[in-house]
Each structure stands twice: as C-alpha cells, then as structure tokens.
C-alpha cells in the first residue's frame, strides 16, 4: 500500500505493519485489564483479611492484621498462634484416638439385680463310670482289652482279640475316645470294623440312671430325677443336664445334635406358653414364676437343687478314668453347650458338697449398639452367625471353630463336636490328631494376634481367625464350694437300716446342693465412655482453651472470605470504573 503525504513525500506501509500495531495495542489493553483484575482481587482479599482480623473472636489474630503494629510484634504473635495450633492439634488427635479405640467402658450398673431376673444355672453332671458290665466275670473289661491291644500293637501292628464279641469290640473302640486319651500313641492304627455311631454305643454302656441319680429335690419338691435331667452328648461321653436349652433351640436343623435331641421334658413344656427366653432380652414381661429355663425367687439351699448321687465300688473302672472317681459337675448358662473337660467341679464319693453360686452378668446400654463390633469388642446376637449354632455365645463360637479346625487338620471331627450329617467322625486312629488340634488352634491364635500386634503393641481391635469375641450380654456362674464327709454306712447303722446295702451292694453316695448365695447381685454394664457428644465437647474445650475458637468463629471465617469478600470486590470494581 502506497500513501502520498501532503508534503509530497511518498510514505509506504505494508498491511502486516498495520496489523502488528493493532495487535500490540490490543495486547496492552488485555494485559492492563488483567492487571487491574488481579489488583482488585488482591486489594479485596487484603481488605477482607484486615476486616476479619479486626472483628474475629479467635485470640491473637487481631494483632496479625493491624497495619501500624511493628513487624517484630506481628511475627511474635504469628509464632504464638502457630504454637497454639500445634498444641491444639496434638490434644485433639489424642482425643480422637481415645474416641476410636476405647469408646466403651465396663462399669457397675446403677442398681442391683434380683436373682429371679436370670435363669438358675444349667447343671451338667457326668459320671466317671462310663461302662457297666452287664454280667460280671463273663465280659472282658476295658483294662484287659487295652492291655491286650497294647501288646499286639507292639508286636504285629494288628489287633485281633480272641473270644471278644462284636458288641464288646464296639464298646472298646468307643471307650478309647472317652477314657484317658493322653496315653494313646500317635501312630495308632485304625481297628478293623464298621463305622460306629458313638452316641448309640455310649447310650448302651450307660449305668442305669435311677441307680446313679438316687433322688432329686428342686424348689423343696422331691421328685424323680428323670423329670429334670436330659441326656447331653459331651467330650466326656453322655452326661445329664438340668435347666439347659434343648438341642433343637441351640443347634441348627442340619446338625447331628439337633436330630438326636430327644423328647422334651415336662418342665420344658412350660416355655411353650410364653415367648422364649434369650440372654439379651431376658424373660418376657408378664412371665409366670414357673417358666423355662427355670428360675428361683430367693437365695439359699431351699431355693436350689439337691441331688443324691450314687456309684458302686464293683462298677468302678480305674483303667479308664484313673484313680479319681465320682462325678464331674459343670455350671453354665442355659444357652451354652457344656464343655465339661474345660471347667468342672469334682464331686468325690462319700462327701457332701455345697456349691454357692454368685452370678456374674454383663449387659449393655442401647447407645453402643451403633458401634462396630471391633470397637466395642463384643457381638450382638444378630451380628455373628454360626454354622452349627442358632445361638451365639463365645463358648459356642470357640467350639465351632475347634470343629472346623479339626476337620481341616484331621479330615474328621471328634464324635462330640458339632457337625453336619455328612461330616466324617474320627476313628481311633485320629484320637491323637484331634487331641493335638486343640493345642495347635490355641498356638495359631496366639501367633496371629502376636504378629498383628508387632507393629503397634496393642491387641485392641485385632480380630482373631476364629473371630469369637464375647457376646455383648453374657452370664457366668461363679462358685464357692464347701464339703464335708458323708458316711453312708455309719448313718445306716445308726438308723438300724440293713436293707439298703443289701439292695444296693457296694453303694457309695455323695450329696450335692446348688443354690444362689445372695438374692441380689451387682451386674456390670457396657456403656459409652467416649461418644460423639463427649468427643465434640472435648474438642470444643481444647479449641476454646488454646484459641478461643467456637462454631461461631468458623461461621465468621466462612462469612468474611465468601460473602464479605464478594461485597468488597464488587465495591472496588465500581470505584475503579468511576
């Protein structure tokens, strides 16, 4: 493009040069506009900051926003402010740790609990006599069979006894499981024979119930013991349980124990007229005095159960159960499966034993139900489902875990363990294996928890492989035991009764009385130690102590740097436009 000037001098300018000049002017305008916007934003933020510092309720912040305050003083107050934030954060972290790790405390309840609000303990009685010879001198004893068995195992690893009937052989194979199993060797072979139903064989060997349970008294009413006791399969063989829930109420429908529960007792039929008892909910409101599980109204021997137990010298088999004879007694909650070998009271013959019961019960407040089981360290009944049991208790869970572990290690379970109908039962060649499995399970649990605790040194919140935490509501019966001599022969001589020993030759008798020691007891209660309310209150106290901070302080901060900042920016833009 050529342009002639008025002076007559030609001035030439290309299109590109014109474009460059125009673009340069546009860039300058855009840059200036952006700089103005940044300047307005900064000025608006600084203005809002100073306003916030002048008006906030947080301690020390106003000194940071004063323009005329010397720089060294503002640095000092900034340092103090940061130290306060550090101290505040440290204490709040400690409060948060306490809230997450120990939210629940077990303390004594505000009121005492009467004994009629809980069931009388379930009583499981096991005789140390496991087999009674029907024809003395004509049947082979366990001692004879075991002696022959040991000799032939060492010689040829083959056991083929002579003159032993098939029934005697079945009984011997069964007694190997319930007699002294500690002497069983690890490499013991399987004895030839068909698979046994150990419950049927044990039932066949049982002593006559009415001879060993001579008489009973419940709540000052004498009666036949058969009305109160039912057969229970335990690791000690078949025992008898009073006031325990039926197997149909404890086990699931597909288990062996459910299908061998037997007929209900007369006292158990009472419960059908009322809602069922559970440990969490207790007895239904309006339940009558006579209910099931049975309960008593007061303490003392007259409000308990009294048993006269009898055994016979000629029927004692020391080779099976060792030198200590008599009975074993276990007190447990009605919904617990009895495990007699773990904890029991020995009832020797020729003694009168008094057991005073002191219940120990832990309940829970409704406030902790919302916590995770790991945090509260207990399970509600619906939170932990068991494979074999309808009712969750810590004891039932541990028994199920042992059964599953034994099945994994040995390929079978012990005859007394909970099992489905298709689970194999261990033969005599697996006795050493299932005895050792219980020890291995305990070691595994210990090693696992130890490994998980290696990092923090704290076992709280660590979940074991069995995952058998206590039930949130639990009931344990502690005992105080006293005993004295009970000389049956001297008593009969003093009364001139000579017929009794002729009718029951070799009789050895003991008496057992079980009752509550006191009519009221103090329960323990799981309740919130540190809930959300306490946590927020603690945080508020810490914030207030260090900084004077509150919820309104947070609202102030949000207000100044949102609504107030927007107002200041809008005002500054209008000022610049003018």
TrEMBL record:
Gene3D superfamilies: Acid-sensing ion channels like domains (2.60.470.10), YojJ-like (1.10.287.770). It comes from the Eukaryota. It is a multi-pass membrane protein. Its main location: membrane. One of its GO terms (cellular component) is plasma membrane. Keywords: Ion channel, Ion transport, Membrane, Sodium, Sodium channel, Sodium transport, Transmembrane, Transmembrane helix, Transport. InterPro entries: ENaC, ENaC_CS. The keyword Transmembrane applies. It is found in: Membrane. The chain crosses the membrane at residues 75-96, 535-561. GO terms for molecular function: ligand-gated sodium channel activity. It holds the Pfam family ASC. Belongs to the amiloride-sensitive sodium channel (TC 1.A.6) family. PANTHER family: AMILORIDE-SENSITIVE NA+ CHANNEL-RELATED, AMILORIDE-SENSITIVE SODIUM CHANNEL-RELATED. This is Pickpocket protein 28. It comes from Drosophila gunungcola (fruit fly).
């Amino acid at each position: 493009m050529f342009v002639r000037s008025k002076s007559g001098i030609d001035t030439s300018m290309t299109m590109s040069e014109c474009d460059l000049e125009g673009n340069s002017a546009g860039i300058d305008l855009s840059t200036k506009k952006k700089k103005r916007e940044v300047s307005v934003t900064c000025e608006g933020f600084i203005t809002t900051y100073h306003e916030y510092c002048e008006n906030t309720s947080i301690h020390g912040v106003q000194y940071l926003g004063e323009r005329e305050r010397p720089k060294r003083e503002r640095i000092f107050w900034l340092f103090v402010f940061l130290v306060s934030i550090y101290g505040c954060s440290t204490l709040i972290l400690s409060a948060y740790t306490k809230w997450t790790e120990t939210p629940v405390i077990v303390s004594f309840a505000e009121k005492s609990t009467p004994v009629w609000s809980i069931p009388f303990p379930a009583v499981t009685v096991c005789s140390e006599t496991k087999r009674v010879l029907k024809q003395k001198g004509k049947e082979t004893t366990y001692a004879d069979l075991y002696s022959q068995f040991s000799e032939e195992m060492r010689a040829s690893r083959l056991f083929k006894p002579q003159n032993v009937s098939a029934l005697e052989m079945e009984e011997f194979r069964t007694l190997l499981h319930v007699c002294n199993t500690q002497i069983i060797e690890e490499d013991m072979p399987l004895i030839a024979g068909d698979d046994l139903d150990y419950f049927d064989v044990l039932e066949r060997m049982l002593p006559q119930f009415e001879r060993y349970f001579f008489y009973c008294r419940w709540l000052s009413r004498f009666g036949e013991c058969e009305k109160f006791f039912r057969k229970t399969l335990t690791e000690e063989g078949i025992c008898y349980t009073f006031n325990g829930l039926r197997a149909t109420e404890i086990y699931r429908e597909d288990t062996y124990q459910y299908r061998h529960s037997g007929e209900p007792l007369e006292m158990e039929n009472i419960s059908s007229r009322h809602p069922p008892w559970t440990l969490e909910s207790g007895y239904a409101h309006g339940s009558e005095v006579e209910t099931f599980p049975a309960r008593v109204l007061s303490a003392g021997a007259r409000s308990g159960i009294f048993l006269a137990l009898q055994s016979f010298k000629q029927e004692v088999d020391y080779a099976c159960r060792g030198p200590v004879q008599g009975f074993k007694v276990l007190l447990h909650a009605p919904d617990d499966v009895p495990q007699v070998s773990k904890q029991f009271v020995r009832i020797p013959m020729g003694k009168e034993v008094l057991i005073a019961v002191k219940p120990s019960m832990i309940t829970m407040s409704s406030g902790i139900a919302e916590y995770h089981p790991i945090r509260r360290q207990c399970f509600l009944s619906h939170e932990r489902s068991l494979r074999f049991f309808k009712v969750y208790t810590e004891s039932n869970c541990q028994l199920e875990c042992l059964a599953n572990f034994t099945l994994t290690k040995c390929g079978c379970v012990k005859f007394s363990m909970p099992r489905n109908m298709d689970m194999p039962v261990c033969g005599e060649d697996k006795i050493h294996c299932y005895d050792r499995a219980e020890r291995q399970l305990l070691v595994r649990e210990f090693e696992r928890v130890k490994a998980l605790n290696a990092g923090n040194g704290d076992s709280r919140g660590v979940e074991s492989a069995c995952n058998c935490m206590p039930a949130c509501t639990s009931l344990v019966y502690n005992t105080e035991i006293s005993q004295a001599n009970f000389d049956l022969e001297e008593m009969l001589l003093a009364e001139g009764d000579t017929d009794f020993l002729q009718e029951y030759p070799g009789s050895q008798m003991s008496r057992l009385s079980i009752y509550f020691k006191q009519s009221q007891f103090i329960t323990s209660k799981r309740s919130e130690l540190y809930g959300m309310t306490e946590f927020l209150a603690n945080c508020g106290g810490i914030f207030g102590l260090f900084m004077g901070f509150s919820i309104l302080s947070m609202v102030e901060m949000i207000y100044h740097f949102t609504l107030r900042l927007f107002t200041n920016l809008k005002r500054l833009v209008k000022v610049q436009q003018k």
